Amino acid sequence: MADERDEGGGLAPETRAITAGRASNQSALAPILWATTTFTYDTVDEGRRLATAAGTERFYTRYGNPTINAFEETIAELEGAEACRAFASGMGAISAVVLGLCSTGDHIVAQRQIYAGTQLLLQTMCPRFGIDVTFVDGTETGAFAAAIRPGKTMLVVAETPANPCLDLVDLDELGAIAGPMTMVDSTFATPLGQQPIAHGVDLVVHSATKAIAGHNDATIGVVSGTAELMSWLWNFAVLHGANASPFDALNAHRGVRTLGVRLARQSATAQRVAEFLEGHPSVTRVCYPGLASHPQHELATRQMSSMGGLITFDVDGGIEAGARFVEATRIALQAASLGGPETLVTHPGSTTHVGLTPEEQAATGIGPGTIRVSCGLEDPDDIVADLGQALDAAVG
Ligand SMILES: Cc1ncc(COP(=O)(O)O)c(C=O)c1O
What we know:
Blueprint: H1 13-19, H2 44-52, H3 66-79, E1 83-87, H4 90-101, E2 107-111, H5 116-128, E3 132-136, H6 143-147, E4 153-159, H7 171-175, E5 181-185, E6 203-207, E7 221-225, H8 227-240, H9 246-257, H10 259-278, E8 283-287, H11 297-303, E9 310-315, H12 318-328, E10 333-334, E11 344-346, H13 358-363, E12 370-374, H14 380-395
Pyridoxal-5'-phosphate (PLP) is lined by residues 89-91, 115, 117, 159, 163, 185, 187, 207, 209, 219, 221.
């Protein structure tokens, strides 16, 4: 699997998740909460400087804040990026990239297999602003490049592994695209599971609400990239107003310190659960990049250092069996998020992706009996036993 140890002075990424972002901590071991909306300054010149410097942290919290900036520094370091900006949510981050970098008359090429919120932003909001979007199959070699309109395409949007069916995009191929900016939503992989910037991608986005914060107590998003692009984005962000709250940044920063052990445990559990599901007679399809049966398993081993805690599968018996399954689990809870300590089960067709038509759901691989599992930190034997008894209850 990919070894990401080379960046950051020979320290492993799991170590840098703990050492990074401490510059303004003074002697405090944990991040400091700057619960203030604004900061004082002494002169007009100082006020002017603070009001105009990209990334400023002590002017007004919508512009920046030391608690938020410390978290941003950690994420930038883990991504191998020059800069990072945190937003009020993953969608805040994605909408800032799309609306902050594209204008009327521009064209976007986007992956068809993508989080439904991103898809709906692209297919319902962009046309209102005169931004044309072409959706392509992100798993097909050359599909993004073939859809680019020279001089018109401003942005290429990808998500890998994609929510919910864990389709992958070849990051080398995406990073080689010249002309438009390229953006990857890397939420499912986490910053420790893959580093799109090392493959030549321009911008990396995460819903840090998920595994980065990791405890279901922070709604927050991040975008990382070059200082130049991020400075442009920062100018939009202060007007967009979807800035992260210092409290959420504090929780997310605390969370990222333990991401290494959580990701390792969740990936190991997911591998075990995926193998169990693959051998179960009531399961008709299992999507997990760590399985040899995943159509892009070889690509996964090339570009991901960890396969992550998400699995999607189809239960035999359609919507009725799917509903019975998610209602029969005893440890796994029904909830629409992922990456936290609790194992969660979701029926994407009726929750996360309910905004899509049945045809659009089918195009992204979601069927009536499709279930997404986010493996938590419980004992793996308990999780396997719980999913097994729920399958028996659903189909048996
Ligand atoms: C892959 C992916 N990107 C973005 C988002 C949006 O993130 P948030 O809920 O933090 O706005 C989600 C939410 O589920 C997601 O799964």
